Amino acid sequence: MATTIKMVVFDMAGTTVNEENIVYKTLHQAINNAGYQVSLNDVLAVGAGMEKLQAIKSILQTYAGINDEDIANDIFQDFSKQLDETYSSSDMSAQPDTLAAISKLKNKGILVVLNTGYSDRVARNIVNKLGWQEGVEFDRLITASDVTNGRPAPDMINLAAQMYSINAAEIIKVGDSIIDIEEGKNAGCAMSIGITTGAHTVEQLQSAQPDHIINNLLELLPLV
């Protein structure tokens, strides 16, 4: 007998939210401001989906051979300040068909949780800009601020499961990065699904061996 899906956990930027890579462009700028020349593609390849201080550490280690907490923290502070300034003047929107897909899931009685490598403050700024409300467009928002270990550790998904007393095997994870797929697999989700609307290419997503790759969130519905 097939497992009943009780929850879908969606990543935010690149999956449900189109914010034109504002966060990663800002992260890229902050790293370059500190004198480390990396490309935006480098930032996306290594940092997409991660808690952002950890992303900085991973990018510095991968492309500059740097493993220094103080340097990473200084870059993170610059990044956080720039991001606040950028968000105050930037527009963002839902990814195509996001609200239609979420509505159909909720009509089936399936819980919708947003999770993200952003801090709680940044994530709530995003949902507020979109006009989304907890309990309306989504059931819960879980961020890197809420757990000890960020992606690819399963902590955020485990927390969502605990909140609703369900098993990870009754959850689908959907995200636009390798680390989203790894998170879902590490949690033991029924399916870990990649989507092509964000940070990583089809080829990059395939390297994480997702259960499915979709191009639009409505393609999720026949899989539930």
From TrEMBL:
Signal peptide: none annotated. The keyword Hydrolase applies. Pfam families: HAD_2 (PF13419). GO terms for molecular function: hydrolase activity. Keywords: Hydrolase. InterPro entries: HAD-like_hydrolase_sf, HAD-like_sf, HAD-SF_hydro_IA, HAD_2, HAD_sf, PGP-like_dom2. SUPFAM superfamilies: HAD-like. The keyword Hydrolase applies. It comes from the Bacteria. Gene3D superfamilies: HAD superfamily/HAD-like, Putative phosphatase, domain 2. NCBIfam families: HAD-SF-IA-v1, HAD-SF-IA-v3. This is HAD-IA family hydrolase. The lineage of its organism: Bacteria, Pseudomonadati, Bacteroidota, Sphingobacteriia, Sphingobacteriales.
